[in-house]
Amino acid sequence: MRHTPETVERFLESSLESVDSAEELATGMAERAGFEDEDLMKIGMAVRESMVNAVVHGNRYNANKRVRLSVSHTPDRFIIRISDEGEGFDLASLPDPLAPENLLRTSGRGIFLIRSFMDEFDIRRSEAGGMDVTLVKYLVSK
User: Residue 43 sits in which domain range?
Assistant: First the structure.
């Protein structure tokens, strides 16, 4: 049973504890929105990967920089927005994680996984610097 659409916004510290908090918030709201276990896992992993990118690669654990997290749902979609205050990067410059030379690397698969788990994925440089990530998972009517 779906609850009334809601939106929650938080400004989180650039710490790994914030990664856990963001995942917890997003999966809790996704569960209330009506998602089942498999989609909850996918949403949680996508949020975790996006938050790690924001905290580690974007803000570089800088205590003076925050990560903005917005989680909302409407009757047909679940939307997560994550923004960091880092320097940003060029998405086209990321190595292909499926290329033979990258298969054994221990990092570099986050965006690949996010794209696999979510129905929509958008990443762009924000006007204030840093990166804005938008993740969308569709709510299927039963």
Answer: 6-138
